[in-house]
Specification:
alpha+beta, Alpha-Beta Plaits, three-stranded antiparallel β-sheet, 3 helices
Length: about 120
């Protein structure tokens, strides 16, 4: 799976945002039955190989994305982030096109990004 940050914003150049993703992976592994085989966090997206022990991969991924989005936004707004206005502007602009987001959108909602099954290419 790949999760891309909207507009390819390079938020994961900051350790605090990478730690949010890592902590969320740990929580999903320990509490939601997510088996994570490998992951890599790039500057603006995350790749990982995983499966769900309980058969609810879609629900786990939905919760993961919701939690990481909220946590990243909270960190941006409450810490000394030099790119705060720029990041919030990007996330707000992305949310304008989607009824599911009230104010900000961190992760893309592209069709290929929403597929949680192997694809042969």
């Amino acid at each position: 799976m790949t999760f891309q940050v909207v507009q390819w914003a390079d938020i994961f150049t900051r350790k605090q945002y990478r730690d949010i993703v890592i902590d969320s992976f740990k929580y999903c592994r320990d509490k939601k039955g997510l088996e994570i085989y490998a992951y890599v966090i790039m500057s603006n997206h995350v790749h990982f190989l995983a499966r769900s022990k309980n058969g609810n991969l879609s629900g786990t991924i939905r919760d993961f994305k919701r939690h990481t989005s909220n946590s990243i936004l909270e960190a941006i707004q409450s810490n000394e982030e030099s790119r705060k206005e720029w990041l919030l502007m990007i996330f707000q602009y992305a949310a304008n096109g989607h009824s599911r987001n009230e104010k900000y959108q961190v992760w893309t909602h592209e069709t290929m990004q929403s597929r949680y099954f192997p694809i042969n290419s």
